[in-house]
Amino acid sequence: MIFEVITIFPECFPGVLGIGNLGKALQKGLFKINVHNPRNFTHDKHRTVDDSPYGGGPGMVMKPEPIFECLESLGAPKPLRILLSPQGQKWSHQLARKIFKKYSRIALVCGRYEGVDERIREFAVDLDISLGDYVLSGGEVAAMTVIETLSRFIPGVVGDPVSVDSDSFTKSLFKFPQYTRPVDYRGMKVPEILVSGNHQKIEEWRIQKALERTQEKRPDLFSCKLHQKDDSNSIDVDA
Ligand SMILES: C[S@@+](CC[C@H](N)C(=O)[O-])C[C@H]1O[C@@H](n2cnc3c(N)ncnc32)[C@H](O)[C@@H]1O
């Protein structure tokens, strides 16, 4: 999988993506991150990437030309072009799975300032993605989150593939609670069933706990599970 990150702060990458499992996978070439600075696609001596908004108002807006040209320079095969935006489709495990199955090259446009010229959202990208209902200063952390989520699906990136398949959200459920040694820590004991050696009972306990904690913490996910509703985002990721 190849990620093409478009950012005016290329020094942010690989950042946290360069450590642990992901860092090793990057070194092995299991996925690749290319970083592109829109400033290299400006044509004035100040290398201007932003300008004041038409109609007035606070802050600056990222100009369309450097980002259009930067995306056009990526060539073939055409990547899925994603704009990181607080107004986008909410990022989720299901949307990530869908994108992973369909695309092997993904461009991520990171906004800054007051955001990007609307023509970028309308005409230069295929979809916009939001991490959640809050505003970040830039799209870089969001792009890292998208890269980290997708790269975990790549075989060999996470040591044990069973771990990815049993992670929270995989089956519209949170993962069951987990414990490790010691069995008794300051009087707080590991549930007896987990040290019983009875694998069938352990499995049943885990399913029960996953259902209980999903119902308690995320009734919306739980009801998707109950009705076997597709809880993926509705956006069409066809480019
Ligand atoms: C300060 S924000 C701009 C917010 C914009 N003025 C608005 O109200 O929608 C600058 C950039 O950060 C990124 N960003 C901010 N919040 C985000 C979120 N929740 N998810 C993804 N990207 C976000 C986007 O790339 C955005 O263009």
Could you tell me how far the N terminus lies from the C terminus, measured between alpha carbons in angstroms?
17 Å
The ligands found in this model are: S-adenosylmethionine
Mean of residue pLDDT values: 93
Major β-sheet annotation: 5 strands, parallel
Estimated structural class: alpha/beta
Alpha-carbon Rg, integer: 21 Å
Shape by Cα distribution: elongated
Structure write-up:
The protein is an alpha/beta fold. The chain folds into two domains: 2-151, SPOUT methyltransferase, trefoil knot domain (Alpha/beta knot); 166-226, tRNA(m1g37)methyltransferase, domain 2 (Trp Operon Repressor, Chain A). 33% of the residues lie in helices and 16% in strands. It has eight helices and nine strands. The protein has a five-stranded parallel beta sheet, with helices on both faces. Strands 3-4 form a two-stranded antiparallel sheet. It is elongated and about 70 Å long. Residues 230-235 have low confidence and may be disordered. The structure holds S-adenosylmethionine. S-adenosylmethionine is lined by residues 84-87, 110-112, 114-116, 130-132, 134-139, 142. Residues 84-87, 110-112, 114-116, 130-132, 134-139, 142 line the site of S-adenosylmethionine.
